C-alpha cells in the first residue's frame, strides 16, 4: 500500500468532502477565508500551481465499460505549511490561484487550530452550492409536463 | 525540378494585421467580452468544446472570438492549445445516473419516473424571428416549482427490468479504453474508440449520416429512449491520497436511442441501443451520435453492411472536422510546381491528341 | 510522526526547482547524447529522489516520464519511496508487467533483467519499445568497447563500468532485432552515455 495514504475512513471522508467543496469555492470565498486568518502560516510551493488536463471518461450505454469522452482543463497545486502539513488543491478550469488557495486550506484543515475556520468556510460553500442547485432544480421542475388523458373512443 | 520560392513575409504580416482589424470591427462599438460569449452564445461555445474535445468554456469562448465566429477555426485553435498541456490523469467514469438534470425527455414512456422535464428548449417555439431581441428588453425570471432533487433513473433501466433491452456495453475483461489522442487508429475499432471519435466528430457530418439512416440507408427503427442534459461530477483518483476527489462539475448531454431488433442466431428479439454522450448542451449532436453508433454496430448484430453510416472506416475517418478542413483547405496553398508538371503533361497529351485527330481527318477525307 | 513524516517528505521533495528550464536542459542533453552514441554528457540538472535512485536518473525520470509512460522499477527501487515520488512528480504509474513499461529504472549495482523481457516495439511501430535507464558505477574505466553505427563518425570507444558480464551478448541480441529493440541510457551521477539500438559494440582489439 502507498505509504502516504494511511488514514482513518472518517478522517478521509471529512477531508474528501472539504477538498471537493474547496474545488467549488469561488475566488472571493477563498480570499475572504484567507483574509479572515489572523496568524497566517508560511506557505511553500511543493508542486505547481499548474494547469493541465484530465481525460474525462464516460461509460458505454451510460453504465457499461469506460470510454474516453474528451479532456477538461484542470488546475492543481500542492503546498507545505511552515509547520509541515501538506495540502492539495485541484479543480476544473485554468484558475491556478484558486487551486493554490484550495491547497492552502486543505493543509490548514489538518491543523487543530485552523480546523474550525476551514470547516466554516467549507460549510458556507456547501450551503451556497445547495441553494444554487435547488434554484436550478425548481426552475427545471416548472417545465415538467403534466399529462392529462383525453376521453378515448369505445368502452 | 524543385523551385524554391521565398517572399510574402510582408504580405502575411499585413494580412494578419488586417485580420485583427476586421475581427475588432467598428471601434465605436464595444468589444464583445469572453463572459458575454460564454453567457449569451453558450451553445456555440458548447459546440466548440465538444468538437475540440476540451471542456473549458472560457477558452472555447476565447477561441470563438479569435476565430470571428468561425466554428471549425475555433475548434482548431482549441485543439492546438490542448496539445500544449500536460495530462494529469484519467477521471473516474462520470455517472450520468446521478446527473443534476436540467432537461430530460423520453419518446418511449409518457409517465416515466421523474417525469418529462422540458428545460430550456427550442422545441415548441415557432421559429419566428423575435424583434424584441433587437433591443435589450427585460426578461422575466423563470417560474419555480417544488423539485425532487433525488437521482433520476435512466429509461434504459426500465426496459432492462423486463429483460427486453440489451445490457450496457461491455468489452472484454482486460480491455483498456483506447485513446485516439495517444495512439493512431487501426481499423476495425472497438466501440469505446468509436464513441471517442464520434463524441469529437463534426455535428453536421454526424447529423447527415444519422438522417441517412432514417431515410433508409441502414434503417434501425429508432426511438429516443431518453435525452438528458445536466451537470455531473468529474472525479479524479489521487494516488498521493489514496482516494478520488471531485474536481467540480461539467455539463453533458446524453442520448439513449432505442432500436428494434428482430433477433439473430445468437441474440433473442429485443431492443438494442445506440449511445450518445457529448460535452455541454447539444441534443442534436448526442442524438445523431447515438444513431451513428447503432448503425456502426451492424456487424455485431449480423446485419448487412449496405450503407455509408454502417461503414466504420468511412465514418470515423471523415468525422473529424479539423482533419477534414486541413486536407481540403491545404489545396489553396502553393502547388505551383505540381501544377506546372500537370500543365506540361496536359499540353503534351493535347499535342498527341491533335496530331492523331489530324491524321484521322486526313484518313476520313481519303475514304 | 517519525517514519511516516520522513516518507512524506521524501516523496514530496527533491523535484526540479525550476521545472521548465531544468527539464528542457535534461531533454536537450539526452537528445544530443542519443544522437551521438558513445559521447558522455553532463545532464545539466539534478534531482534529489529518494534513495537508492540517483540524482541523474531522477532528473531523467522527471523529464521523460508522465501519465502515459508506465515505469518498471527494479525490486530495490520498487520497495523504496521512489514509486510515490515518481507518481507525485510525474504522474507515471509503476507496473510489474515488464512488457507494459515504457521506461525501466535500475539503480547502481541492481540486477539488470534480460532486455527482451521488455517491450521491443513492433515492425510497424518500433517506437513502442522500452527505454532502459541503468545507473552504473562509472561511464569510463571499464573494459574498452568499440562502437560503430549511425551518429558515430567511424568508431568510438566506450568503457562503461558496472554492466553485467553478459552485456555484449545481450546487446548483440538486441541489435539483431532491428528495427525493434530497446534503447539504453547509462547514468553515473549526473553524466549520461546513450546506446540506441542502432549502435554496434565489440571488444576493442588492442
From TrEMBL, chain A:
It is an enzyme of class 2 (transferase). This is Alpha-D-ribose 1-methylphosphonate 5-triphosphate synthase subunit PhnG. The keyword NAD does not apply. It holds the Pfam family PhnG. Coiled coil: none annotated. One of its GO terms (biological process) is organic phosphonate metabolic process. The keyword Transferase applies. GO terms for molecular function: alpha-D-ribose 1-methylphosphonate 5-triphosphate synthase activity. NCBIfam families: PhnG_redo. Keywords: Transferase. It comes from Rhizobium giardinii. Its EC number is 2.7.8.37.
From TrEMBL, chain B:
Keywords: Transferase. It is an enzyme of class 2 (transferase). One of its GO terms (molecular function) is alpha-D-ribose 1-methylphosphonate 5-triphosphate synthase activity. It comes from the Bacteria. Its EC number is 2.7.8.37. The keyword Transferase applies. Pfam families: PhnI. GO terms for biological process: organic phosphonate metabolic process. This is Alpha-D-ribose 1-methylphosphonate 5-triphosphate synthase subunit PhnI. It comes from Rhizobium giardinii. The lineage of its organism: Bacteria, Pseudomonadati, Pseudomonadota, Alphaproteobacteria, Hyphomicrobiales.
UniProtKB/TrEMBL annotation, chain C:
Transmembrane segments: none annotated. It is an enzyme of class 2 (transferase). One of its GO terms (biological process) is organic phosphonate metabolic process. Its EC number is 2.7.8.37. Gene3D superfamilies: Bacterial phosphonate metabolism protein PhnH (3.40.50.11310). It comes from the Bacteria. The keyword Transferase applies. GO terms for molecular function: alpha-D-ribose 1-methylphosphonate 5-triphosphate synthase activity. Keywords: Transferase. The keyword NAD does not apply. NCBIfam families: PhnH_redo. This is Alpha-D-ribose 1-methylphosphonate 5-triphosphate synthase subunit PhnH. It comes from Rhizobium giardinii.
